[in-house]
Design a protein that fits this description.
- The structure is a single chain.
- The protein has about 625 residues and is α/β, with parallel strands linked by helices.
- The protein contains 13 helices and 29 strands.
- The longest helix has 19 residues.
- The chain is globular, with a radius of gyration of 24 Å.
């Protein structure tokens, strides 16, 4: 064994090339909601101090001065695009978005997108998990099977104000884990009107005590990854506590994994992928070519190879994971050859099946104070920031823009079912959601008005049928991949958005809203015309940033999948994938919670395989 000291941060792979690691975790992040898994798995594998673990993160540290703003819960929705901690990706031109390319934020930081996402924690309906169990052939992924990991990962805590939140969540469905979740500390007039309207409509908008209970439908309260007035990410909840407890965990940041490689000299029938090739700069190239039975290494630039004695765990998310696989010669044969990449393992499903959920917002001015008045007053914001910096209290210490949400289904008599099979997981899983925002929710290409008080509603397509791709733009990890979520490509998808519009109109036609004098934002379409609404949606909709499916889980003999039920890459040894890329369909909840739970179970699966339990 190496006598080197562990539990350290590094920015140069040279510093760790002579250390020996049992596990290498690629991606200490989470995808807006999806690379969380790396931090969770690394922390769990380091428990006990017996296994040496290395986490490799392409992004920056989450403790730099320019990332301090990430900890402020109120700022969660303005933390992406054009900043040092974001990959600053964009999509390809989207036909369903009137040929627009839209920003596609991903966390470029330790903790990944869990460090700069919208904080929402929703596990999704029980039927989602049961469907994953059926697709994978493993009942351990069922709702019943994942319950131990639900309780092991998350803990509900009071908001900083300790307001009474009884009747807004169910304590029985929350656990004792390191990830803290809470409800808002700031209840507004908007919530009063939303709950009053839902009560007036009864069963159509039935009240759901806890949307994390497995019941996937109804109107309830958002739960957020906020504790003690600050953001909880996979880094703060898992990785940093592990660093303070164990000496066998190293973190290598600001370093790209160029590709994975069959372990040199390996000649077994199943290729063994326990070696990663790392680089600091795009000038470092590492080529591989096939001979009769092994990979020939060709040195053409500075690079560092690191090998795990037991496993490499790939946690780079629904965008990064398929990119790394394809750069390693694992993917669709023709696409690899087009990019001059030798095909080590032909895998047509890699990078396919990309799904995400589009959202369109509607805004109205109202005659009472909303967050719009606060956010447009820079002096008030500065004062609130000083308060938060002092003791993590005040308006900024809570996620208070999105507090209520309704998960709904298309009516059973809708003509959509005359032409489409129901793509949801079942009768208690949603087709769309209405989310309520106590301010101005700008759509793509829109800016907030200079003055006034606003409320907004977003319609989110929860169960899309469109499927896109993640493809390579070149054979370099330093070039952004081609991200094509294929938004609104099917008549079902746009039809569900229209059904969402009808539900929204019905909701706002209740007497709860009649007492308000509201004025729509000047760009809103004629809401009585489906055609105008469709054009508005295609012109202004944007991604909710929940990409999944590009390395989907399936039964071991299913050729349409990439990983088996144990999350091991099929047809190879030594490589496992633990992130949102393995989720086989767009979730009925929010994927952040799903990935935390999945990573907890994956950690146990890994330990069982290596007799570490």
């Amino acid at each position: 064994m190496c006598s080197c000291t562990y539990a350290a941060f590094y920015t140069d792979p040279v510093k760790v090339q002579h250390k020996k690691y049992d596990f290498i975790v690629v991606g200490g992040e989470l995808t807006q909601h999806h690379h969380t898994a790396g931090s969770v798995v690394a922390a769990r594998l380091a428990e006990g101090g017996n296994m040496n673990v290395l986490v490799i993160e392409a992004g920056i540290s989450d403790e730099r001065p320019d990332t301090a703003i990430l900890d402020v819960p109120f700022f969660a929705l303005g933390l992406t695009g054009g900043v040092s901690y974001d990959w600053n990706y964009t999509t390809t031109l989207q036909q369903g978005f009137n040929n627009r390319s839209v920003p596609y934020p991903r966390g470029f930081i330790l903790g990944g997108s869990s460090s700069n996402n919208g904080l929402i924690y929703l596990r999704g309906p029980s039927q989602d998990w049961d469907r994953i169990a059926n697709i994978s052939g493993d009942r351990g992924w069922s709702w019943e099977g994942i319950q131990p990991y639900v309780f092991k990962s998350e803990k509900h805590v009071p908001s900083w104000s300790h307001r009474d939140d009884r009747g807004e969540y169910d304590p029985a469905v929350h656990g004792y884990g390191p990830l803290h979740t809470s409800l808002t500390a700031n209840v507004s007039d908007l919530e009063y009107h939303v709950l009053k309207a839902a009560n007036e409509l009864g069963d159509e908008f039935s009240y759901n005590l806890d949307l994390n209970s497995g019941n996937g439908l109804g109107l309830g309260w958002f739960q957020n990854t906020v504790g003690n007035g600050t953001r909880f990410s996979s880094s703060t909840a898992y990785l940093r506590p592990a660093l303070s407890l164990y000496t066998n965990l190293d973190i290598l940041i600001e370093t790209r994994v160029v590709s994975l490689q069959p372990t040199p000299g390996d000649n077994r029938s199943l290729r063994d992928f326990r070696t990663v090739i790392t680089s600091k700069t795009p000038n470092s190239l590492y080529l591989i070519s096939l001979t009769s039975s092994y990979c020939q290494q060709i040195d053409v630039g500075p690079h560092i190879l690191l090998t795990a004695s037991k496993e490499v765990i790939l946690c780079a998310g629904a965008i990064g994971t398929p990119q790394i696989l394809m750069l390693s010669g694992i993917g669709p044969k023709e696409h690899l050859l087009e990019n001059n990449i030798p095909v080590i393992l032909e895998f047509p499903a890699v990078g396919r099946n990309l799904q995400d959920q589009p959202v369109i917002g509607f805004q109205w001015s109202v005659p009472y104070n909303t967050l719009s008045a606060f956010t447009s007053n820079q002096s008030a914001v500065n004062t609130a920031l000083l308060q938060w910096q002092y003791d993590h209290t005040g308006i900024l210490a809570s996620s208070c823009a999105f507090n209520n949400v309704a998960f709904l289904r298309v009516p059973s008599k809708s003509v959509l079912f005359n032409h489409h099979r129901d793509p949801s997981a079942g009768s208690t899983s949603p087709h769309f959601q209405l989310v309520f925002y106590n301010g101005f929710l700008p759509n793509s290409g829109q800016g907030p008005p200079d003055k006034g008080n606003w409320i907004s509603t977003g319609i989110v397509l929860q169960a899309p049928t469109s499927r896109g791709t993640v493809l390579l733009s070149s054979n370099s990890i330093f070039d952004a991949p081609l991200i094509d979520p294929a938004f609104l490509q099917t008549s079902w998808d746009i039809g569900v958005m229209v059904e969402g519009l009808k539900a929204m109109k019905h909701f706002f036609a209740t007497s709860a809203w009649s007492e308000l004098s509201t004025n729509p934002f000047h760009e809103l379409p004629d809401l009585n015309s489906d055609e105008a609404f469709e054009n508005y949606t295609r012109s202004f909709a944007f991604p909710i940033k929940h990409p999944v499916g590009t390395a989907r889980i399936s039964k071991i003999d299913d050729k349409n999948g990439v990983v088996g039920p144990d999350l091991k890459l099929k047809h190879v040894q030594g490589l496992r994938i633990v992130d949102a890329s393995v989720l086989p369909f767009a979730p009925g909840g929010y994927p952040q919670a799903q990935v935390y739970i999945m990573a907890e179970r994956a950690s146990d699966l890994i330990k069982e395989d290596h007799n570490l339990v």
